[in-house]
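Recall that a protein's primary structure is simply its ordered list of amino acids. Everything else, from secondary elements to tertiary packing, is in principle encoded there. The following example makes that idea concrete.
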Amino acid sequence: MAQLEYLLPRLVGAWAHLKKSQGGIGFRGPGETQLEVDRRRARERIAFLKKNLKRVAVSREIHRAKRQSVPIPTVSLIGYTNAGKSTLFNCLLQAHEFAENKLFATLDPKTKKLRLPSGLNILVSDTVGFIRNLPHQLIESFKSTFEEVGDSELLIHVIDASHPDRAQQTETVERILSELDLAEKPVIKVLNKIDLVNVHHPQGNPSSGTSQGAIEISALNGLGIDRLLAKIEEVLSGMYDKPVHLLIPHHQGKILSEVFTHGRVISTENTDDGTLVLAHLPPKWQNLFADYRHTHT
C-alpha cells in the first residue's frame, strides 16, 4: 500500500508521452485513457489493502498483547531505508528474512527471540526503513512499524556508514522519532557496512558528527557483532531497578527458572519456606513476580 500511495500521484509522467498521440476534437489519446485505468486500478487496490489492514491490525494487536504478557525486553532495529536492518536482523538471529537494497524491501515488522551471551532473552524486531519527507498519506502504511518502535525498551539505530548522505539520513530518522514522541527512548547507534567505508570514503571518519560514539559493524560479515551484543546487555541492565528479594516456594520451580532466565541473579538462599533470591529484574518481570516479593531482614 505504501508503494501504491507513493506512486499514484506520479502516474501522470509515466504516460505523458502518449497524450498527443491521438488528436482531434472530442477524442482522447490512448495515454490519457491508460492513465485513468491505472489510477482506477491503483485506487481499487489501495481501498482493498486498507480494508485488509484493519483486519491485520486486530491480529497484530493480539500478537502484541501476547508478547507483552510474557514480559521479555523488546529491541527494535530502526534506520533509514537500505541501511542494512534486515541484514543485521538475519545476522543476530541466524535468520533468512528477505533483505535487498531497494525502497521498502521490508514491508512489515518481524520479531524473533534472541538469547544474549549472559543468558538474558530479548525480542528483536526488524522494522520498515524510514525515508526523508515521508508523505502524510503514507503514515498509515507504516503504522505497524511506529507501534512496534513505541513498545520497545531499546532502539538500535542502524546507519549506513558508506552512504554519502549518512548525516542527513541520521537526522531524518531522529526527527521522525521526535515527531512520534519517541525521542526519549534509549538508542544505540550502529554504523553498518563499515567494511565499505574505505572503498567509498577513504579519507572519512565514519564515527564523526551525528554518528559519534556509534558501534562500528558489518552485518554482512559479522564484524563488531560481539561489541553490539555487549552494548545491548549493558543498556538493558542499566534499566533494571535496584535488586529485589523474591521468596519462591519450593514447588514453584518453574518460577525460579524464569527468574534465572530473565534476570541477573546475585544470590540464592534455601529456607524452610522456599528459595530466597536476590536478583536484578526488568520492570516488566518485577510486576509479574510482585506476589513473590519478600522483605528481607
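Residues 1-70 form one domain. The chain has three domains: 1-70, 72-239, 244-292.
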